[in-house]
Specification:
Elements lengths: L28 H16 L2 E2 H8 L3 H13 L3 E6 L10 E5 L5 E6 L5 E7 L5 E8 L5 H18 L4 E8 L2 E2 L5 E4 L4 E4 L1 H9 L3 E5 H13 L4 E6 L3 E7 L2 E2 L31 H5 L1 H11 L5 H27 L3 E5 L2 H4 L2 H13 L9 E4 L6 H15 L3
Parallel strand pairs: 4-7, 7-11, 12-15, 15-16
Antiparallel strand pairs: 1-3, 2-3, 4-5, 5-6, 8-9, 9-10, 12-13, 13-14
């Protein structure tokens, strides 16, 4: 089994920026500079050693030394000489070894299936697999995760760089699922368990936090809020280019915020009126199916979705106002979240925040559909193992 020689800090820490951008203190310099070289190549494509030195501000000697090390480890490859008309010996181009590794990604956020994929380093999905959840919780659900990982590893055709997992619930930086009520998990050491089983680097984080990594890669916005609606409801938040996880690792756990003082449906956590009880996919789907073929079914359907959208807007308004966010992304089933739900959420946000400050506020659906967590899992592994995103 391949062991990748470089591993960075977990991406979800209080001080970890998503992308290295410059020099750091001497004691952190070598690992940071390795990541800086890899990030430059990953983002910009093939370049010469001199190009990298100019772009990063590192000396040519430092770049040559790092590149030699990365080539020896199989992380960087030489592509041949550049064809140009400049005088002197043509420069040799180098690039990240994009075809040398694959990544395993898992999405545990859906209410009926666990989904997984084998991806290339750029997030392109090569193979897929899924297992029906069948109402499994606790140890039975954990064993399904292991079975899915085994199946995906069998589909990989080249060495695996690492495994990324997006799980519902509160997940600490060590990959322990502190609490996932819908799956019946409490203090489940999922990262340690999968690492011991596969002898590969494993990174586990909250599914919404993982999803926002994929969205950030598309937008490159420094401030971004993503709301993930699936089995439950959660949010991922990036502020100043850094993921926010909170002191108790529960930043973005908006699903268990009680909305209003009028009670509401019973939530899996035991409270009444949590946002998740209003907005989660199983809840909305069951309500819509119960309408049946009555004369005013369309109006009744829209009212259910509008009420759910209003509840989400009530929860999001203080966050949007406090952070002065201009971009909020919804990720989940478009047939539920687009249309009446979306309109009600926007209307509520605008009514509950200062008009002059939310003039540029944009609430949109993610274009990455159901693959957003899988692609984010690939970003998480890239960041954790190579320091790039």
């Amino acid at each position: 089994m391949l062991t990748v020689p470089f591993a960075g800090a977990p991406i979800f820490t209080r001080s970890r920026a998503l992308r290295p951008t410059g020099k750091v203190l001497p004691e952190h310099a070598r690992s940071h500079n390795r990541a800086l070289v890899l990030q430059t190549l990953y983002s910009s494509g093939a370049q010469s050693r001199a190009d990298i030195a100019r772009e990063t501000g590192l000396t040519r000697v430092t770049v040559s030394d790092l590149v030699a090390e990365l080539i020896a480890e199989g992380l960087v490859v030489e592509l041949g000489q550049r064809e140009d008309a400049r005088p002197g010996k043509p420069a040799t181009l180098i690039d990240v070894a994009r075809d040398a590794f694959q990544i395993i990604g898992l999405d545990l956020s859906e209410h009926e299936v666990f989904r997984g994929a084998v991806t290339a380093l750029d997030g392109t999905i090569a193979e897929r697999a899924e297992l029906a959840l069948g109402g499994a919780t606790g140890e039975a659900a954990a064993q399904l995760v292991e079975q899915l990982v085994d199946r995906l590893l069998a589909l990989a055709t080249i060495p695996v760089l690492g495994i990324g997992v997006g799980s519902p619930g509160v997940v600490d930086p060590h990959g322990v699922v502190r609490s996932a009520p819908n799956l019946g998990w409490v203090d489940l050491p999922l990262q340690e368990r999968l690492a011991a089983r596969t002898e590969l680097p494993v990174h586990v984080a909250n599914d919404a936090n993982v999803a926002i990594l994929a969205e950030h890669g598309e937008t490159l916005l420094d401030d971004l809020l993503l709301v993930k609606v699936g089995h439950g409801v959660g949010a991922g938040l990036i502020v100043g280019g850094r993921p926010v996880i909170g002191g108790g690792f529960a930043a973005g756990e908006i699903g268990h915020v009680v909305v209003g003082t009028d009670g509401g449906p019973r939530c899996a956590c035991g409270k009444d009126g949590c946002l998740e009880a209003w907005v989660a996919e199983p809840r909305l789907t069951a309500q819509l199916e119960a309408i049946g073929a009555v004369d005013d079914a369309d109006d009744a359907r829209d009212e259910i979705l509008r009420e759910a959208g209003r509840r989400l807007g009530i929860v999001l308004a203080p966050v949007v106002g406090a952070l002065n966010l201009t971009e909020v992304v919804l990720s989940g089933p478009a047939e539920l979240l687009d249309g009446a739900f979306h309109e009600a959420t926007v209307d509520t946000l605008r009514k509950r925040t200062m008009a002059e400050l939310n003039r540029d506020l944009r609430l949109r659906m993610s274009e990455q559909a159901e693959d957003i967590v899988l692609r984010g899992a690939a970003v998480m592994v890239l960041s954790g193992q190579l320091g790039v995103s």
